[in-house]
Specification:
Helices cover 37% and strands 14% of the residues. It has 446 residues and is α/β, with parallel strands linked by helices. It has two domains: 163 residues, Aspartate Aminotransferase, domain 1, CATH 3.90.1150.10; 230 residues, Aspartate Aminotransferase, domain 2 (3-Layer(aba) Sandwich). The protein has a seven-stranded mixed β-sheet, with helices on both faces. Strand 8, helix 9 and strand 9 form a beta-alpha-beta unit. The radius of gyration is 22 Å and the shape is globular. The structure holds pyridoxal-5'-phosphate (PLP). The site of pyridoxal-5'-phosphate has 13 residues, from helix 4.
């Protein structure tokens, strides 16, 4: 019998997952299209590798095991899997066609909605992926300012201008690498030192898990403005989640350009670039940014339905309230068990992160140990609580009961000093060898 979301006796049977993996390995390089969904992020030998279907906040793997999902497709499932209103909108559009020979009326409907709900969306471009819109933002910022250099912070997608600042930068010409550098989040002095007369833009996530220091975003904006540099918010995670209008609405700070994807179409592939009309106008002629599937109508139908649902049901408030119960509950259990010195849950309520200090042992082994025993209890987890509108109060209560058991086991293992020996498979890997504080400027000013 496959496992359920329950205190199962055994780890799940993952025979069919492993068979698919063996078929994929010789011909798929690598087997995954998204690192965070790949086998490296899950304890190998215990965790399933392939999912088959989802409903609400639950997913089923190819062996029929059921899990409560806290990854939610790495962000996009903000409402939940197979959410009726969104699926109905997609099906209704499907009957009329997917993608067309001319512009589609939904492009205008969607743009008007965005103009209304996103602060400073004076002009709008639609595309497909997060990397599309961050790259378009950087290109238009370079064109508008007549400058070359980019300062960034966090992850912004697979294109050359960004990946050049990471340790996986093979295949990128040195001339491109020399133009991008990273700054320290929440360190206004590092930005002051890095900005120079050739800095076209600063692009950053308004926050990841750490909150911005009082005034940081406003000071950053003022600093960029004084230097003639454009400020770009990468709102892949913050947009439509911390507030429908994202971090610009939540913190009351205006970026020159803002990029969105993930949360606003409940799983359909669509991305959005918004910002100042005078900057975006360059896309009319000088700056090229077009793609065949840019106006694809199923995603637009899903986006309009998702955003309307978010507004009508005040989804960001729900994500925050459920996420807060989980975050506070986790920290209370860690306190009770006397292990808060090495594990805690941090971040904003809508999306929080569980972390383990080196005091508990190798953090990847510790994470793997917690993951394997949550998987046994029907919880698909890789350290995050990506909350959705389908995570119920009962789901949160069940998760906390599972944490209570699993953290109790962790305490025993840490006290015995044998976490690694208790692992039933190969531990998880780091997503990137290095993405932050890498190629930081100004070590040597470019
Ligand atoms: C903050 C941020 N920016 C950009 C991207 C790139 O988006 P995509 O993978 O859709 O290209 C991601 C993807 O995870 C992201 O988290």
């Amino acid at each position: 019998m496959p496992n359920k979301v329950a205190f199962n006796e055994n780890y799940p049977d993952i025979t069919e997952s492993d068979k698919l993996y063996q078929r994929a390995k010789p011909i798929m390089k690598p087997v995954t299209q998204t690192l965070a969904k790949g086998p490296g992020q899950y304890i190998n030998g215990v965790a399933p590798k392939y999912l088959k279907k989802g409903k609400g906040a639950r997913v089923w793997d190819v062996d029929g095991n059921e899990y409560l999902d806290y990854n939610m497709a790495i962000g996009p499932l903000s409402l939940g899997y197979a959410y009726p209103r969104i699926d109905e909108a997609i099906v209704a559009q499907l009957k009329d066609g997917i993608t067309f020979s001319m512009m589609h009326e939904l492009e205008v409907e969607f743009a008007e909605l965005i103009h209304k709900v996103i602060p400073n969306a004076e002009a709008i471009r639609i595309s497909k992926t997060g990397a599309d819109v961050t790259s378009a933002a950087v290109r238009v910022a370079r064109a508008f300012t007549g400058r070359n250099k980019v300062l960034c912070c966090g992850y912004h997608g697979w294109h050359d201008w960004y990946i050049s600042v990471t340790s996986r930068n093979s295949g990128i010409p040195a001339a491109v690498k020399d133009l991008s550098a990273t700054i320290d989040y929440n360190n206004i002095e590092s930005v002051k030192e890095a900005l120079d007369a050739d800095t076209a833009c600063v692009i950053l996530e308004p926050f990841v898990f750490e909150a911005p220091k009082e005034g940081f975003l406003k000071e950053l904006k003022a600093l960029c403005e004084a230097n003639g540099t454009l400020l770009i918010f990468d709102e892949m995670w913050t947009g439509f989640r911390i507030a429908v209008g994202g971090a610009q609405e939540y913190f009351g700070v205006k970026a020159d350009l803002a990029c969105y994807s993930k949360a606003f179409a409940n799983g359909m592939p669509i991305a959005l670039l918004t910002g100042r009309r005078d900057v975006m106008e360059l896309f009319e002629e000088e700056v090229f940014f077009f793609t065949t599937f840019g106006g694809e109508a199923l995603s637009l139908a899903a986006a309009v339905a998702t955003i309307n649902e978010m507004i009508e049901k005040n989804v960001p408030a729900y994500l925050a309230s459920q996420g807060k119960k989980l975050k506070d509950g986790y920290n209370a259990i860690a306190e009770e068990l006397g292990i808060a010195s090495y594990t805690r849950c941090t971040g904003y309520d809508c999306r929080s992160l569980v972390s383990f200090d080196a005091a508990a042992g190798n953090p990847l082994e510790v994470k793997s140990y917690v993951q394997q025993d949550l998987i046994k209890r029907g919880i698909l987890w890789s350290g995050f609580h990506n909350m959705s509108f389908s995570h119920t109060g009962e789901d949160v209560a069940y998760t906390l009961a599972a944490y209570r058991e699993v953290l109790g086991l962790l305490k025993e293992a840490v006290t015995a000093g044998d976490v690694a020996a208790r692992l039933k498979g190969k531990p998880v890997e780091a997503v990137f060898r290095k993405v932050s504080n890498f190629n930081t400027k100004p070590v040597a000013k470019i």
